[in-house]
Design goal:
alpha+beta; Nucleoside Triphosphate Pyrophosphohydrolase
Length: 147
Amino acid sequence: MEIPFGSEKKYPCCSSDVIILNEKNEVLLTRRGVEPFKNSWILPGGRIKQESPVDAAVREVYEEIGVTVEIDRLYGVYTSEGKDPRGGRITIAFVGHIVKGTPQKTLEVLDTLYFAKDELPNDIGFHHKDILDEFFKYPEGQIIHKK
């Protein structure tokens, strides 16, 4: 089927998010300070610009909470499937750790806290709850779900 130029659907954008763990295997979440999902807890990360997904992850974490992270590995690739009011989004989730700095509040972030897997907050924004549930169930890597 041929789609006339200009009539194609809007394509999803891509983002890089980072699962940052401390020495107790708790995950760092940030309380979002802007819409959408203002006041909800999310993984640090954001939109990929003209850069690699790893570079985007490092940049976004620094911009959001003022720390330098090292990416240890790719965890998985996810789609927002209607959970982002801005439209479709493909998320590349990495696992990383902080190499410099202490998480800070910024214009985009109201707070940062580490959470144990059995103490995750109920108000997790976007599709990050799905990512975290899968991470704590399958820490070695994303499971491919066949439909």
